[in-house]
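Subject: Sanity check before I submit

Could someone independently write out the structure tokens for this chain? I want to compare against mine line by line before I put it in a report. The sequence has 494 residues.
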Amino acid sequence: MLLEMREIQKSFPGVHALDDCRFELAAGEVHALVGENGAGKSTLMKVLTGVYQKDSGHIFIDGEEVHIENTRDAQALGISIIHQELNLMKDLTVAENIYIGRESMKGAFLNKNAQNQRAAMLLEKLNIKLSPLQIVGELSVAKQQMVEIAKALSYNNTRILIMDEPSAALTETEIEDLFRFIRQLKEKGVGIVYISHRMGELKQITDRITVMRDGQYINTVLTKDVTLDEIIQMMVGRVIYEQPKTHSNVAPDAPVVLECRGLCSKDVKNVSFQLKKGEILGFAGLMGAGRTETVRLLYGADKRDAGEIFVNGKKVPIKTPADAVKAGIGYLSEDRKRFGLCLQLSVAHNTALPSLDELSGAVAVNDKKVRAFSDVYKKRIAIKTPTVDTQVRTLSGGNMQKVVVAKWLLRNCDILIFDEPTRGIDVGAKNEIYKLMNQLAEEGKSLIMISSEMQELLRMSDRIVVMCEGEKTGEMLIQDATQEKIMSLAASRK
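---
Independent answer below. Compare away.
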């Protein structure tokens, strides 16, 4: 056995994070590690990679016990990790990020040309279509994730590769490329720990699955011998069903609350669509299709070269996000930590941010009002936090997303844009977000949902708009939608 972890214990003040946990990995195996947020998956892997030191227990590599005190010890043993949260330096180039700390030198000086050539060869080998000279901060979340993957695979001695949500921001096509990388690594004898909330991926790429719940080991099973429903039930301790939507819940004569006509920019070409009251309008497409770019034009986050926007039949001059908010439009970004939340502030202050004008007195913000209103929405949408004074950074991904929803509900936005609403969220929390979105639609809110997960689009949407290379290539009611139809439109321009 390449790796064995036995009787691992880890506690933090007030929290028993890992309780008698175990895990094993064979050479050339893809072993999934699954569980809800807070189950202990990432903590167990941080123990393995030297980020945390175990309180007790044993770690064996090739049958020999090892002691991992820090990340350098782990790297020396051939252990690499692709983090769930992007761990990149946004102001540096792709090449500089890949080889940070291992730069190409010419004497005492940095040899940028040699380093860029190394990065270009690596990216080409991995079929990642990026330039080594691109600034990482200017890349999309999906492309930044590909840089993380390239960085992890750049270590020549990697024997154990931990992938923590590697596909969370990737499209179907990119996931196929990722799986191709994984199969190549398997052939070389690399053992891969695969952490993912996308249940469908497990059957495609893994050999075994270990389930954790509440910091404890639950079971290890052969992937071929277990159903996805059985895995989910082990993870959450209850049955969750995810069935596609069979028909639209919106009446044919429902009023149009939003209409975009001929939206244009350098990335978007003459896109028009309507959104009805109480509707969930899905946006499908491959990476670079222009979905996020389209809603950013609608929201005033990017400059519009042409096009008109109507809210409830009235033309609105949206030039900035503030204009969009005044028009009753809220935007939940795909990168909620970067664009949706102030992580050092409390749940209450994050919830109140768009509504400070209404929650302020003549001189200062009324903290009593902020807490009271935030507590109402904490209870309404079941944000799991001890109090509204808790810092947002301490919450799980699912509860962070709920805080972003809460701030737009407090602002009383009738149109909500959800960009990748469940990225990096576990299956139980996903179900809660889905219930919340359906509840909002039933209450008369209108939702635009961008998603790279086909099953999510088919489960949630009343109607689906498909885009390719900045153009709208099709539109269909959910009862007419299939994966094949969507992919056909997503891969072909008009």
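---
OP: Matches mine. For the report I'm noting this point. The mean pLDDT is 87.
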